[in-house]
Amino acid sequence: MIPSIHKTGSETIGLINYLYGPGTDEVHIDPHLVAAFDPLTPDPGRDPKATYEQLEHLLDQPVNALPASKRPEKHVWHLSVRAAPEDPILSDEDWAAIARRMVAATGIAPDGDEQACRWAAVRHAHDHIHIIATLVRDDGRRPRRHNEARRAQAECRRIEADYGLRRVPPGDGTAAKRPTSAELHKAEREGRERAAREELRENVRRAVAGAASEEEFFDRLAAAGLLIRKRVAPSGDLLGYKVALPDNRNGEKEPVFYAGSTLSPDLSLPRIRKRFSGDSDSPSLRAPSPESAGPAAARRSTATAAWQALLIIDHGEDSLVAAHIAAAGEVLDALATTSAAHTRTELREAAFVFERATRSHIQAERGHDRALRQAARDLVYSGPALGRGEDGATTAMAIDMLFFLVTAAAHWHAKKEHAQQAAAAREAAEHLRTAYKATAGAPLGVLYLRGRRLSQPLRQKQAAHLRAAVPELAEQILAEPGWHALAATLADTENAGHDPSALLREAAGRRELGTADSISDVLVWRLRRLANLPADATTMPGHTPAAARGNGRAVSPIPNRDDLPGKTR
Description:
Number of domains: 3
Shape: elongated
Oligomer: single chain
Largest sheet: 5 strands, antiparallel
Structural class: alpha+beta
Helix content: 40-55%
Pfam family, one: Relaxase
Strand order of the largest sheet: 1-3-5-4-2
Order of helices and strands: EHEHEHEEHHHHEEEHHHHHHHHHHHHH
Number of helices: 20
Radius of gyration: 29 Å
Protein name: Relaxase/mobilization nuclease domain-containing protein
Organism: Streptomyces sp. NBC_00093
Number of strands: 8
């Protein structure tokens, strides 16, 4: 349940007109009073004799009783309380009780205070109410509203428990503004997947992912088809910007613009500029070179950058960790934009929900996150990846490492008691798991078959490497279905001139693997990246397609592959 305390206003009748009217997009259905300071308060929604002016006069009586010089200029208080989409529809009686609890918790009308502020709660949709109050008590004093927003949040947490509603993690004031009811209804009516505010936020985040300058950022916004308005000072300096979807219009058929700062706190122009400036000792992001500009190379470098970032998140200072988590959001945005159709939806959802994990009250120290931002830039400029071959296999490799990075971010946020951020990172990890399963099956299946065909002495040799490198995990790995794929990879590393045991120790050393469901999968991708082996084993010398062996029938890949990359319990 989400409470939103809106800016105070100066005209009671204006807010009453809105609450009882059709709404911005005619989404107000059956507006009516569910509760008020006085049971006899007139309800213009249900009583044909009651008028908006009567309700206004009743609410404003304490204000008008003051001398004109002592009346507050802005005396209209407005709170909306919204249930989650999956919550059951509450009755008017339930909403009335919730309204009374909210005005008591915020100091507008404490329980038992007969001189409290006057208020009324209006319901005009099934999932939320609006509470209007005047900020002068019946005794002429002002209400005590200190920390009203925090107290409103705390009361909503108690209401969720009492009514069995979705439990919303407590926030810290760094979340992006949620779409309003009107915006959500408008999106539904127009057949949009998301509200315009959310769609714009996603587009702006994609435009800033890996961008190296303001010019590049605005060029990307224009290329995405967004309308742009820039706010320029008399000196010619750029102060800010607004964006709009070309087909999102208001009642006057004009585009509805949103400032970057209203889409998300970190999308204001000053905050975006910090990404470009970074640390003075950090070189600028480079354009991808021709030899490393392909989608597969970009995904391989993304896995490397994520691997390095894990060390920072595990052991770095808070400001550096915050910067790397924010940059990880850019990588997810870039990967979702450039991946094949069968993984794009899940990757897009992962990026969308992880956005909440990229901000907290810990200020990010920009510049040290250059490797991740460069990875995002490489992904963008490498272009769309195919869902097969080396493109598909390196996508699985990148997702595998990003899963660990996102999971590490969840653990860090949980340690810092950032409840919403930790929950968002965990949800993003679930989407990455699903995307991984969609892309890893084919390349791991090839390796599995190659491992099954290894001679007995060669399999024993690889098992000996395993026991030498990770003795505490060896027997668990040998019992996994993915061991055959790992054995094939160990053989490939040896053929490439590496020491399999040493490489395996390095692959297993940076993250504890004891709680992984599929340690084999994780080690396969790490070894193939560290040894610079093709992620798609069908390109290895001597590979024979499955359909060309035996009687010509393709051999099924790993059976019952429900294991997920590095899943932690």
